[in-house]
Amino acid sequence: MDQNLLRSYLSTVYEIPSPSGLLRVSMDGDVAADPSLLPDPLTKTFAILTAYNPRSMLLPRRVNEARHQVLRDLLILGVYRVESCVGYEDEPEGVWREPAWFVHNMDRVEAEAFGRVFRQNTIVWSSGGRPELIVTDPTCDELGKTVAASFRVRS
Predict the structure, then answer these.
(1) Which of 47, 79, 142, 145 is the most buried (most CB within 10 A)?
(2) pLDDT tens digits, 79-124
(3) At what angle do helices 108-117 and 61-77 cross, to 10 degrees?
(4) Taking the model in full, what pTM does it have?
């Protein structure tokens, strides 16, 4: 995977739901950080999935929204608890924002399958406070290749 693309994925800020409001996190944190000190939602098992812009191809808003709704419907039919979240660049000039779904208690294998079906370069999957960026598109890198990361809570 291109190192600039990898850095971009790891530094993406996600706004995820928590009992105390939105939690802003990225995956470019300190590797030595103790995951037990993270806010509760980050210590659970979850996936962050999107259907927007498959293989990094910009699609019209209406098409992206329809794909994203289909993803949500399939997740709910799979009896997953799904909440809205968003990923974005945390740069002053950054304009990229992409809606995603925060999927509670999703198995890693199934999360990868959703990433492949919706043609995403990668997905985020986490368990026990240890996030992973997993390649789900073989044109991006070796299928299933995993980049271990660490959460950084943003203010």
Answers:
(1) 47
(2) 999 999 999 998 767 788 999 999 999 999 999 999 999 999 999 9
(3) 150
(4) 0.95
Sheet of strand 97-104, all strands in order from the earlier edge strand to the far edge: 146-148, 130-135, 122-127, 46-49, 97-104, 82-88, 13-16, 23-26, 152-154
Assess contact for 38 and 104: CB atoms under 8 A. Answer: no
For the stretch 19-45, pLDDT in tens is 999 999 999 999 878 999 999 999 999
Write the DSSP string, 22-87.
-EEEESB--TT--GGGS-HHHHS-EEEE--SSGGG----HHHHHHHHHHHHHHHHHTT--EEEEEE
Q: Is 152 exposed, middle or buried (0-12, 13-18, 19+ CB in 10 A)?
A: middle
Considering the chain, what is the average pLDDT of its residues?
95
Give the type of residue at 69: Q
